[in-house]
């Protein structure tokens, strides 16, 4: 199960879901917003499920749900009132290609789609699992999770005193860590196993991901990233790089990946796809 | 079970839910956004559930969920890029009292809260019911339901040719009818009965509600309504009043309420609260 396999599966699932929607401009803009991406979160769901012997097609609903949720957050984060970005994944952002009203509504509809996917019968035959996936997804994405992290990030940009390492770690645990954590634990939920057993992997992975994002914002190639870079330095924001230095940030991310991999020890070779994913998180160039 | 009783119950449920959130500006703005309103949708849930002998406290989760969903839609609809309204329920809108970024995030977090409430164990002991409520709520609110209706409404405002009666009826069935319909049928879902039996009531009620909104936009008192009125005429938009005339619109709303009440016939006197609600929908002055 490679990242490319997962990306192809989740693209097909999202396409199928949107084919069931009315043929409108809104649906076209939703399709555009979910049409690209690394699909890391979907892959975590699918690789985690596969490791625990969940049939692949039973992971598709949850995998598509987390990508719809992630895509909604990007569309809203890119809005002029938020990060004001024109480029995402190498393409014009939704509010640039359409307009702000459409971008707000596309984000809103993609969040609904995430819950439609995760609570639908195709996601799992056991309604207890579906309701639990919906409940945990709502908590991870809402006002105590991802949305709070984004609100804190915007507040930090306007603050006179840059955040310290503890504050940034907490903020990012919510902004990006919560959804990555949900994705890493979804496979266990689908398998009917205790998701907490993957908690250490999920937490370390989420933080390593964000540190790498901060590193790529400094050393990355904008064309390859498909989005504007050097934003944090321009804004004078504290980041893992500004606080730890470039080498310090790299070492920290590597240590976290080592810890994530160590946390998979009880699963033996079955966890190789999750190990590869952890290595990918810091080795990626975009 | 009066509207006031339901309003008090749902306010308490929402307050309790938000008390569980971190003490942040975002939570304060979420609390503000859900702190007022007629609570018609919550009352439909509670009155429908009570009619079918569901204990009141078992209707609270679904009732609070639909009000959180409704509140999110108002916060986003009021944004400058959408309807650009400064006043809602007699108070400054969220983007006026805070800012646009906060308003976008408050709406996003309230949508998540709706799904957190509806899929949580307190909503119903049977996970099949919780997953079904989440799934139908996602469909009612998303890109084939409420959000599509709002997108169509914005498009209609920019169109050169006003919509005709069929088009407006379809648009409003999505924009306001979908959530009202979900609310009217939620009690049956909580009771484990066939929600389709309340479908005719729900559809007629939703349309009567919107026609009355169009009437109040023309003859209503802005202070009492707590929001800007006469918007549709200013924008040259087709409404039920512009298409049917004021008297024609009133007759149509009354006929729909009569139909909604007739559809409750099989339930006998147990349905009196739902009958009162239907009468309230056209008798309200705000």
Largest interface: A-B, 53 and 53 residues
Please name the CATH architecture of chain A. Answer: Orthogonal Bundle
Give the strand order of the largest sheet of chain A, numbering strands 1, 2, ... along the chain: 1-2
The largest β sheet of chain A comes out as: 2 strands, antiparallel
CATH overall fold name of chain A: Farnesyl Diphosphate Synthase
Q: Which stretches of chain A are low in confidence, meaning pLDDT under 50 for 5 or more residues running?
A: none
Radius of gyration of chain A: 18 Å
How would you describe the oligomerization state of the chains in this entry?
homodimer
Q: Indicate the CATH class of chain A.
A: Mainly Alpha
**If helices are DSSP runs of H or I spanning 4 or more residues, what is the number of helices of chain A?**
15
Measured distance between first and last alpha carbons of chain A: 21 Å
Chain-averaged pLDDT of chain A = 94
Instruction: Give the beta-strand count of chain A.
Output: 2
Helix content of chain A: 55-70%
Query: Can you identify the CATH superfamily of chain A?
Result: Farnesyl Diphosphate Synthase
Structural class assignment of chain A: mainly alpha
The string of secondary-structure elements of chain A, in order, is: HHHHEEHHHHHHHHHHH
Per DSSP, what share of the residues of chain A sits in E-state strands of 2 or more residues? under 5%
How many separate domains of chain A? 1
The shape of chain A is globular
Report on this model:
The structure is a homodimer of 286-residue chains. Chain A is mostly helical and 286 residues long. Chain A has one domain: Farnesyl Diphosphate Synthase (Orthogonal Bundle), CATH 1.10.600.10. Chain A is 70% helix and 1% strand. A two-stranded antiparallel ribbon of chain A has the order 1-2. In chain A, helix 4 (60-77) packs antiparallel against helix 6 and helix 4 runs antiparallel to helix 9 (165-191). The longest helix of chain A has 27 residues, at 165-191. Chain A is globular and about 50 Å long. The two termini of chain A are 21 Å apart. Chains A and B meet through helix 2, helix 6, helix 7 and helix 8 of A and helix 2, helix 6, helix 7 and helix 8 of B.
